[in-house]
């Protein structure tokens, strides 16, 4: 180490030592700080002054250091936390004087997966308040103590006083048989404390979601923040990872802190501006996610200000959310495109109709499956009939292949298409009906995992149709620690159907397709093993009905009659209008043949 480095280190040491000495608090400052901490400790512990000014029976007064009292809202920085409870048939809301916020919200008709009372808001996991600068001090109302002004059976009023004519007043109202807790805020005289250049006040809302369902991973993957802007567009943050978003150009109408089957939704009569949203994906035991949002509200520095909010604390039940008439129901993932339309306009109304008979949900799913399979029966039969035509034409197709050979694929394809046309067979006739049924199959993939009605409902050995059944559990292997019996039954039935199709197809079956038919159900088993038993139950019923339908149709179809009909078509061909598919196929073959001839000339 050279001399310059040594000198530098010595100087740094001297500077640090001098700073500690010069910045050391005086004896008087230490005493003042100790007195302040002792005073705050007495307030927190409820210790009262027993001097002559405080006679027995008088209201306890907690004294606070004059330094604190001289600051804005200094007298509200400590106090006694008291609670007011508002309750109706559906929810029980506990509101605290600390922050004037909702401390607890219990859904009276619901429980957690372990049978304990279900709270959407619980203790310090919820923060709500305004942030602003008053007289040079940063104020967060969530940290201050309000006074309880008035309360009735369905309303409660809290006030945060700066002076007699300068205060914030929160009034909560709860109507009978409602999930909505109204909040009206009056900012009286506060504009005189805020810089005239400040045109907005900041609202902050945070919540940590605790586990309510047995499968916490699934609960995390179906929980996130949704929001609706004033243009009626609804969007959401990521469900499967940390995410944040700043909405600088959009004005927001409501924000939903969505958990899998329950939501806390804050709507504002005044648009929320410059809204910032953040979701933190937590892997702590019993914790689902952490949500945070901040937003600006217009603030008039010339007069008093008023804000109207509404908290919805309730289930993600489609008909309940839709009845609020604020598009809340769109936070339920019904699928994209046609799948969403099928669920909203067909499945949900049909399910609600069947639910009106108060049957077991296992029976409701059975009837729903029967109705949908019945509606699809004509397409299924048409598909199977088309496959039967292809099966009886297989010997003639083999003759063409033997005659043309494998070297000239273009000529082979032309001859095959010629045979199809003569016999009046559409080679895609067996696929199109199946493709038309596919959106319904996928739609239920979204419908059942998000169906609130299945939550906690049992059927046969399945204790909860909204999550997987796990009669067999073991130490996790590749992330799998259980076997779902309903998923096993669904897979076995699908494999049986595949075997039957291959057996009846005979020589017409493609060997590669045979293997794929067996592999796909096994892949779906590993994917659906952790999905709700209600969904696997539906797929199991669908597989059973598909197998029975195919057996019945197969028994009713006579291959010899079909072949005779096709031969008759060949002898007496009907002039049929070409489909757009046939036209495109012929044009494509002509172009390929022309390209081949051109290459031969070269």
Short description:
The chain is of the alpha+beta class and 602 residues long. The chain has helices at residues 3-22, 27-45, 66-69, 216-221, 318-323, 338-355, 361-392, 394-404, 409-423, 432-447, 485-505, 511-528, 533-556, 559-571, 580-601, and strands spanning 83-87, 91-96, 102-111, 117-122, 126-134, 137-140, 147-151, 155-163, 166-174, 180-188, 200-210, 224-229, 234-236, 243-247, 252-258, 262-281, 287-298, 305-315, 472-477, 480-483.
Write a structural description.
The chain has 602 residues and is α+β, with helices and mostly antiparallel strands. It has three domains: 30-55 and 64-70, no CATH class; 74-332, Beta-galactosidase, Chain A, domain 5, CATH 2.70.98; 340-465 and 532-571, no CATH class. Helices cover 41% and strands 26% of the residues. Strands 5, 6, 7, 8, 9, 10, 11, 12, 13, 14, 15, 16, 17 and 18 form a 14-stranded antiparallel beta sheet that branches. The chain has a four-stranded antiparallel beta sheet with strand order 1-2-3-4, with no helix packed on it. Strand 3 (102-111) and strand 4 (117-122) form a beta hairpin. Helix 8 (394-404) packs antiparallel against helix 9 (409-423). The chain is elongated and about 100 Å long. Mean pLDDT is 80; it is low at 19-23 and 35-67.
């Amino acid at each position: 180490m050279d001399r310059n480095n040594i000198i530098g280190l010595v100087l740094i040491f001297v500077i640090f030592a001098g700073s500690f000495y010069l910045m050391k608090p005086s004896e008087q400052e230490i005493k003042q700080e100790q007195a302040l901490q002792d005073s705050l400790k007495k307030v927190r512990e409820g210790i009262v002054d027993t001097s002559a000014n405080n006679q027995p029976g008088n209201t306890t007064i907690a004294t606070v250091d004059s330094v604190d009292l001289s600051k804005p809202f200094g007298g509200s920085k400590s106090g006694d936390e008291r609670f007011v409870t508002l309750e109706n048939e559906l929810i029980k809301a506990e509101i605290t004087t600390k922050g004037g916020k909702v401390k607890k919200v219990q859904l009276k008709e619901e429980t957690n997966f372990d049978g304990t009372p279900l709270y959407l808001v619980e203790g310090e996991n919820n923060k709500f308040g305004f942030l602003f600068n008053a007289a040079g001090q940063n104020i967060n109302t969530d940290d201050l103590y309000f006074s309880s002004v008035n309360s009735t059976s369905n309303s409660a009023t809290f006030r945060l006083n700066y002076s007699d004519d300068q205060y914030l007043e929160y009034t909560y109202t709860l109507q009978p048989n409602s999930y909505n807790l109204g909040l009206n805020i009056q900012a009286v005289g506060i504009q005189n404390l805020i810089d005239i250049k400040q045109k907005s006040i900041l609202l902050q809302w945070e919540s940590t979601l605790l586990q309510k369902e047995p499968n916490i991973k699934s609960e995390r993957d179906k929980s996130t923040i949704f929001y609706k802007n004033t243009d009626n567009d609804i969007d959401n943050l990521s469900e499967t990872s940390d995410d944040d978003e700043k909405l600088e150009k959009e004005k927001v109408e409501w924000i939903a802190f969505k958990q899998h089957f329950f939501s806390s939704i804050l709507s504002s009569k005044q648009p929320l501006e410059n809204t910032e949203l953040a979701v933190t994906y937590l892997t702590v035991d019993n914790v689902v996610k952490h949500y945070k949002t901040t937003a600006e509200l217009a603030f008039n520095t010339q007069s008093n200000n008023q804000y109207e909010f509404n908290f919805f604390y309730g289930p993600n039940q489609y008909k309940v959310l839709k009845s609020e008439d604020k598009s809340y129901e769109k936070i339920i993932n019904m699928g994209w495109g046609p799948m969403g339309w099928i669920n909203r306009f067909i499945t949900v109304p049909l399910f609600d109709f069947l639910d009106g008979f108060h049957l077991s949900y296992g029976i409701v799913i059975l009837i729903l499956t029967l109705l949908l399979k019945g509606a699809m029966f004509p397409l299924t039969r048409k598909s199977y009939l088309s496959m039967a035509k292809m099966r009886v034409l297989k010997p003639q197709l083999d003759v063409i292949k033997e005659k043309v050979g494998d070297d000239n694929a273009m000529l082979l394809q032309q001859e095959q298409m010629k045979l199809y046309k003569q016999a009046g067979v559409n080679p895609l006739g067996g696929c199109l009906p199946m493709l038309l049924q596919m959106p319904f199959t996928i739609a239920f993939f979204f419908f059942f995992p998000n169906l609130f009605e299945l939550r906690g409902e049992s059927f046969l050995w399945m204790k909860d149709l909204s999550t997987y059944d796990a009669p067999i559990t073991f130490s996790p292997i590749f992330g799998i620690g259980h076997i779902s019996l309903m998923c096993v039954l669904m897979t076995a039935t699908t494999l049986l159907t595949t075997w039957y199709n291959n057996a009846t197809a005979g020589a017409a079956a493609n060997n590669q397709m045979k293997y794929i038919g067996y592999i796909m159900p096994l892949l779906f088993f590993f994917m659906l093993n952790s999905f709700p038993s209600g969904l696997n139950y539906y797929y199991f019923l669908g597989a059973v009905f598909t197998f029975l339908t195919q057996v019945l149709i197969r028994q009713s179809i006579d291959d010899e009659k079909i072949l005779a009909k096709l031969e008759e078509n060949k002898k007496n061909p009907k002039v049929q209008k070409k489909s757009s598919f046939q036209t495109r196929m012929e044009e494509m073959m002509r172009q390929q043949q022309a390209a081949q001839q051109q290459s031969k000339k070269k």
